[in-house]
Amino acid sequence: MADFSALDIVVLAGGISHERDISLRSGRRVADGLTALGHRVTVLEPDASLLAYLTSNRPDVVWPALHGASGEDGALRALLEQTGIPFVGSRGESARLAWSKPTAKTLVARAGVATPASVTLPKETFRELGANSVLDAVIAGLGSSLVVKPAQGGSAQGVTIVDDAADLPRAMVDAYTYSDVALIEQKVVGSEVSVAVLEVGDGPTALPAVEIVPVGGAYTFDARYNAGETRFYVPARVTDEVAGRVARAAEVAHSALGLRHLSRIDLIVDADGIPWFLEANVLPGLTETSIAPQAIEAAGRSLGEVYAALAVAAINDAVSV
User: Fold this and answer.
1) Which of these is catalytic: 19, 185, 199, 251?
2) 49 is catalytic
3) Active-site position among 17, 155, 179, 191
4) So where does Mg(2+) 1 get bound (predicted)?
5) CA-based Rg of the chain, rounded to a whole angstrom?
6) CB 190 within 8 A of CB 270
7) Which tens digit of pLDDT belongs to each residue from 184-219?
């Protein structure tokens, strides 16, 4: 049996996405947790020297802590697959599916999980058909209570909650700042919850749902990463029956997208206790204010031990292929 007591692990953090600083914080916390357990950890940036370093040094496992496109759009993960070095997290193909919010919504809906009605609008279509006529059609079909977001991206960047039709044009501009495709969803009123799904050998398991209550009313980028901006309730303040529905919805979404090891599934629970899928995160934030670490600790597990278990799961998965 392989000795997993002292692994050589490369943690990837940083990158050039809008979420670089968050990635550096996540990577440092992963590295600290692994080092405390006796693993040998090197923290690297994904740059022009990365692939040569990995193929020359052949670490036991790569632990990507990269947020945004550099770590979650599937490209880097597909290249890691080519090296043959085990790595934590979803493979390239699944990451691409989850990175596209419209694609993820379609696949999860087909698996039986509710997701808000929506329209996906490339910037070219918006211009070609005329902003006014397009937005009039959207409001006629979905109403004026909407959520506008980039079709790709994370950390709520470019996301706007629209309660007045007059605010919709500006929301579109903000979304297009981060992506050439915007997703416009019908707003579902309810409790926002986020579920970390852990998979270390026994199938996907939903950890306790975290309920999110932003002090300012919206779970913005600042609310996510600045202490005191958001109140978190772990576990979420729902009945046991609803908690079960939420867990099942998260596990179904994780499996429908083919995700692996660790994901975070964001949902809204409406007044009838129905969970609505919003999006999936291939690599959830792991900072001191992030949701996944809170869920891990609420499940009675230490962060370092879970991060190490994920590294071992990656090695085992590579051996079994």
Assistant:
1) 19
2) no
3) 155
4) 266, 279
5) 20
6) yes
7) 999 999 999 999 999 998 899 999 999 999 876 555
CA-to-CA separations, 76 to 68, 111, 273, 301, 304, in angstroms, rounded: 12, 27, 38, 29, 24
**316 has binding-site annotation:** no
- pLDDT (mean) for 245-261: 98
CA distance 75 to 263: 17
| Strand partners of residue 120 | 183
Q: Is 281 annotated as a binding residue?
A: yes
Tell me if 229 is assigned to a ligand binding site. Answer: no
**Do residues 294 and 232 make contact, with C-beta atoms less than 8 angstroms apart?**
yes
**Domain ranges across the chain:** 8-88, 96-114+189-320, 118-186
The pLDDT of residue 229 is above 90: no
19 is catalytic: yes
* Architecture of the CATH domain 118-186: 2-Layer Sandwich (3.30)
Q: Say which of 90, 191, 194, 290 is annotated catalytic.
A: 290
CATH of 8-88, one of 3.40.50.20, 3.10.350.10, 3.90.226.10, 3.40.140.10: 3.40.50.20
How is residue 285 written in tokens?
Answer: 């934030």
In the numeric block, the tokens 């009675």 are attached to 300
* CA distances (Å), origin 314, targets 18, 28, 282, 320: 27, 20, 15, 10
- For residue 1, the model assigns a pLDDT of 36
Task: Give how far Cα 19 sits from Cα of 72, 75, 96, 135, 154, Å.
Answer: 11, 17, 18, 30, 8
> Does the active-site annotation cover 155?
yes
CB 209 within 8 A of CB 236: yes
- Kindly tell me the sign of the dihedral angle through the C-alpha atoms of 208, 213, 219, 222: negative
